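Sanity check

After download, print the first record. It should look like this:
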Amino acid sequence: MAHHHLPSKPGNIHWGSFSSQHRPVLEIASGDRVTIETISGGREQLPAEKGDWHYLPDHLAYLEVGKPAMRGHIMTGPIAVKGAKAGSVLEIRILEVKLRQDWAWNIIMPLRGSLPHDFKQERRMTIRLDIARNKAIMPWGVELECNPFFGVMGVAPPPAWGEISSIQPRAHGGNLDIKAMVAGSTLFLPIWNDGALFSCGDGHAVQGDGEVCLSAAETALTGTFEFHVRDDMKLDMPQAETPSDYVTIGIDPDLDDAAQMALRAMIDLVCARTNLSREDAFTLMSLAADTHVSQLVNENKGIHVMLPKAAVHGAK
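Expected structure tokens:
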């Protein structure tokens, strides 16, 4: 097992899109670890307020040369994993997630977010981050505990899709915005191309389920991941685990359809790990699982179902 470092210098970054045609900036072996640096936001997201903000030199350097392929996120990658083949699964163990800077940004935009017609003017906000205390300090003084995670973690999409925006989560992962994907959790993504081609970005210092105004406390993060190619797994959609829960994910423009997708996936998971019938699995979920809205604001909406592992392992 090797441990690689992927800095957020301009040559390691792409902006706005996923594509099977993106060239990898790093190639690793299955089982390797990678510490990945990310940045967040275009020039208009830099703090407008006067203050002693810490600007990352690599962020400023990239903004001098980087141009978005389409509307979307700034991502580091892609990383090619040797031996990854289309049809297998990439297991991404999230080992550590750390704040990189002392500020985050948030935005409300007309015609966007979960209340698209309620707010007529764009509003940008800079949020102070106290890294030592792990706190986000709102402009009105309230402090929120930081819960850093990557909103975007994805592999390259099926080649037939071409180049797609990073805004909409899909079967390749991408903009999942699941706040449970913190250090200690594991994400499983279906692989659509040889090498998998993993990228991440969209760092969040803190976010509530739903991400309702359009954005979280968006910031630069450093993450350490361990990658494993799983030839013994088959998935059509992303799944995940936390230390305590199994997580299934539904993605669709219709929230009800997204919920049904996530629920059916959890029934399949329970039946595969136990001798329960689908009816018993559905009952178990109604008693023990929590159905969360991941986000409402990225055109394709997200639902994730979390079922305690103890509820599954206790079933005979």
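If your output differs, re-run the checksum step. Summary of this record's structure: Helices lie at 57-65, 255-273, 278-288, 309-313.
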